[in-house]
User: What shape does this take?
Amino acid sequence: FLASMAQAPGLQAGDRLLAVTTLSFDIAVLELLLPLAVGAQVVIASREQVQDPARLGLLIEHHEITVLQATPSAWRALLDIGWTGGPGLRALVGGEPLPPALAADLLAQCDALWNMYGPTETTVWSTCAHITPGLGDIVIGHPIGNTRIHILSPDGDPMPIGATGEIVIAGDGVATGYHARPELTAERFVAEGGPGGACMYRTGDLGRWRGDGQLQH
Assistant: This one.
C-alpha cells in the first residue's frame, strides 16, 4: 500500500504532509507511515487545530504543507472560511463521495486533486483517481498496486463496460475476514474465480467501468 501511494498520488522526500486523522481511522496509516517510508516530513495537527478550520488553514500556510488528506466535509469546512489554498498543495480526498462542486472549488485552489476509494477491509485505499478540470463525472480511477477490481452481477458474473454491478476487490490488501464473525466473513469474503481462488472482498458498493478505463462509483 505504501509503495503504491508513494508512486500515485505520490510522495517524495521534499514533501511536507499534514496529518489530521485520528488513529482510530484507517487512513491515518498513510499520513503517519508514508512520509517515514520516503523520507518526507509529517506535521501532526492537534485535535484543536483539526476542529478549527481557521487554525488548520494557518497551519497549512505556516509549514508550507504540500500534501493534505481529508474527507470532503473537512475540505468544505476549510473553503467555507475563505481558505485560498496553498502553493504546491496536493489535495487527497476520501472517506465520502466527492461532490463535483467541491472538486471544482479544490481544483481552483490546489495544484492537484486526487480522489481516493477503498474500504477498511482492503487496507485503506484500493483505487485512486487524478481529478482534472473537464473530466466530467467524478471517478475513483484505477486500482493501486497489487490490487484487482471486479464489477460483478448478483450472480457473480463480470459485468460489461458501462454496466452497473457490485465493486469486488481482490489483491494483496484484502483482509482475511472479520474477527469472531464467521457468518459475515463467509458472506463478504469470497473466492476469486470460484473455489480455491484468492480471497476477494464484496464491498456492497455499486460501480461501473467506463469506456476510458476509469472506475466510477
The helical segments are 2-10, 28-38, 47-51, 53-62, 72-80, 100-109, 182-188. The chain has a mean pLDDT of 96.
